[in-house]
User: Which sequence fits this backbone?
């Protein structure tokens, strides 16, 4: 396995492409937007520069990583000899189903099709293809080049051969793959999102403010980042999408998104990527507390 195609040049997609390229795989990063591709490549270069400055990699590794990367705005030619395609598009079921239908038609029989989904059923995605045994989940964590975990999600029909190949591949990327079964939210988000949602509920009910909630969790529970700031970095729109998947999947009110989260997403307050969420990032990525506007 050497030729990798990554679909989606956003935060997760460019991080996944960076990681494969750094470990000497030939990578094509695909996005329908040339602007997104330019931004994604700029982000990869910036992150490689930081790794060089911190002496995590050498200049030679940086140059080789960039040499292993190309970009494309069309799937048809770049997937014709792909060993693995990793979809990292938006967390939207219809979008993912459309992509996998197209991939199934375009990719050779040998290609393994993986989704970086953080909550959507791999079994459901696989069902729109003629190769469900070759469809699997590879849920990387952000920032991908740094975080060690990969949730490897086995769909109902995923073959043992494909599963083992992806587990071994993840290890070659110096990651720690963890096998999980295909249920809403898998493990990471089934546990994380209710905690984030409860933190938002705590704010919504006026129990404490944004910095106070995050400080309690950082100092009291030894979390490196408070849940509200973490939600900003994940993207409040992504958090909402995952909670909606959990709520639909389990029919349990404990997964119902907090009304404050719903309203913030409606208002376009997505967190870091929009410049404001529970914190203000308009001047830099450093979190500055937003004026108290979260009361019911």
Assistant:
């Amino acid at each position: 396995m050497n030729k990798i195609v990554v679909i989606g040049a956003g935060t997760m997609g460019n991080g996944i492409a960076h990681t494969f390229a750094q470990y000497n795989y030939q990578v094509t990063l695909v996005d329908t937007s040339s602007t997104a591709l330019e931004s994604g490549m700029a982000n990869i270069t910036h992150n490689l520069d930081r790794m060089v400055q911190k002496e995590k990699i050498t200049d030679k590794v940086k140059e080789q990583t960039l040499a292993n990367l190309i970009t494309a705005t069309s799937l048809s030619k770049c997937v014709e000899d792909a060993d693995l395609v990793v979809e990292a598009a938006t967390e939207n079921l219809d979008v993912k189903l459309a992509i996998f239908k197209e991939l199934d038609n375009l990719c050779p029989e040998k290609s393994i099709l993986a989704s970086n989904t953080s909550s959507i059923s791999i079994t459901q995605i696989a069902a729109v293809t003629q190769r469900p045994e070759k469809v699997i989940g590879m849920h990387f964590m952000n920032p991908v080049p740094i975080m060690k975990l990969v949730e490897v999600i086995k769909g109902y029909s995923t073959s043992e051969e494909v599963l083992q190949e992806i587990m071994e591949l993840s290890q070659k990327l110096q990651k720690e793959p963890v096998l999980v079964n295909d249920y809403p939210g898998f493990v990471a988000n089934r546990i994380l999102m209710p905690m984030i949602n409860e933190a938002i509920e705590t704010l919504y009910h006026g129990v404490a403010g944004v910095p106070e909630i995050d400080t309690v969790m950082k100092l009291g529970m030894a979390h490196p980042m408070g849940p509200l700031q973490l939600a900003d970095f994940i993207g409040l729109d992504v958090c909402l999408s995952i909670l909606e998947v959990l709520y639909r999947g389990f029919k349990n009110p404990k997964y119902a998104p907090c009304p404050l989260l719903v309203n913030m997403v409606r208002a376009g307050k997505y967190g870091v990527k929009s410049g404001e969420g529970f914190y203000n990032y308009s001047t830099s990525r450093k979190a500055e507390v937003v004026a108290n506007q979260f009361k019911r």
User: Anything to note?
Assistant: The mean pLDDT is 95. The two ends are 53 Å apart (CA to CA). The domain at 189-289 is CATH 1.10.1040.10 (N-(1-d-carboxylethyl)-l-norvaline Dehydrogenase; domain 2).
